[in-house]
Amino acid sequence: MIRPLWQRIGGCILLSLFAALFLLPLCWVVLTSIKPTKEIYDAQNFRILPSQVTLDHYRHVVVKMSDFPRYCWNTARVTVVTIAVVLLGSSMCGYALARLRFFGGKSFLTFLLIIMAVPWVVMLIPIYRLEVAIGLLNSLPGLILPYAALFMPMAILIMRAAFLAVPSDLREAAMIDGASEWRVWFGVMLPLVRPSLTVVALMTFLSCWKEFTYAVTLNSLPSATTLAVGITYLQEEGQSWAYGTLCAAIVLSVLPLLIAFVAFQRQIVGGLTEGALKG
Amino acid sequence: MIGRIRKSIAAWLFSVPAFLFIGLFVAYPIVASLWMSLTDYHLLYSDDPAFGGLGNYRRVLNDRYFWIGLRNTLVYTAARVPVIIFLSMFLAALIQACKRFGRLCQTLLFVPVLVPEAMGAVVVVWMLSEKFGLVNHLLGMALGTTVTRNWLGEPRWAMAAIVLTSYWGIGTNIVLFSAGLAGIPKSLYEAAAVDGAGPWARFRAVTFPSLRHTPGVVSVLAIIGSLKVFALPYIMTQGGPGSSTMVLYYWVYKNAFEYYKLGYGCAMAYLLGLIVLVFAAGQLLLSRRESPS
Lengths: 279, 293
What we know:
The structure holds 2 protein chains of 2 kinds. By secondary structure, chain A is an all-alpha fold. Chain A has 14 helices and no strands. Chain B is 74% helix and 0% strand. The longest helix of chain B is centred in the first third of the chain and has 36 residues. The radius of gyration of chain B is 24 Å and the shape is globular. The chains are: A mainly alpha, B mainly alpha.
């Protein structure tokens, strides 16, 4: 179908305007982060572009602020351990659900679908009480355990679908060769579902990095919290709100997400869209 | 027979880690929450909570702030969902029309989805800052005066700002619509063009009906997401000014973790959960019809 040229060009211009509008906040953050402090707080001579580029804010965030590196370190540890746990749990359970028809398997699948529809606010208060009781509040395991559990159902469904797509002859052939169930899973099946393992790892990475409500409730102390919550604490540091350092901190904490996006764009877009449909 | 039993045992062993995690931190809390909602559990005062039957639920329904929270949540949902649907559908159509340039724009529009909601909120607070904010400055330039409006300090604007911020993460919806649009056969458009249909007529006669369930699925997802709104008002306005942006989820949070009324909070969380579940059930039905597998 051929549309008039002006219509197509007009459409593209409109689209790029929207894209620019959506990126404007991010650009503004980057600009603020490289602006000298006195220009940030100069209402009379408001400048959109900085007169000179400074990296002071970044230096301040990385060197002088002890909290920010700690949030990064917390986030990294929570993310890595959660990914490991979710990968292990979901690839094992997904395999069992897909390839080993077992007593109770079907009902477990239905159960997963039901609990995935329950909003996390319902689980939050009992988890909080549980963690108060066993002293896990404001500790990294206290965040990792609920994260792993909450992200697991979705991951199991992804892994189950992946194992279902592997031809079942492979399993039988390996079994005839005398391999145990564990060897088949680890040696034959896991390498074949690597793409889905990547998707699960990426989704878990993004979720850990972005999650706010559980982190602010269970790990509200600066010593144990993650970046998503920690950033809001930096806001009130000192007497005036230090937007220069705040923006530098935001740039640094969004950077890993953007790098992952550039590297794994297809998997991330696919995974998030799929996740929205199922979760 | 023995083979089947062995297989079953192996399957259970494979499932043990998942069972443990989901059992302890998902299944148990769902049940415990229901139980707690029937007691007067308070974190500091009651070691031995008394069973109160439906007392909490009755109290919730008499709680003025519960209704304010519900109203604000519904206002937020009503303001957000239609725009999300039409904007993402519109942008998806533009993306499709622009071919390769469109794909680039789709990627750019997806970037905000990656930014944690909490950071997006902080950024908006900065942009709306009274004296040094970008928005007031740009408005001032456009109007030729100095604008020092405290947007987040005025009830109506505060809610509007939160709703606007939430549009930022529209990227997933655009992708869903793009997938729907890609499935429409080109021949339909050619037929419409032969009949001399303009853009609007084409949209009404071809595009919208051919999208089938996509608008339905997207709206249910958007409704569910809106009902669970928490981080944006929590960071941007702390529910204020007054209680103008205090959403239901925030009131649950306050009762449970600031006043430590855990039982009462659970009752409210359950009510919020039920409202969400109704829509989630609708979504399940819709997606079943979409893919009869």
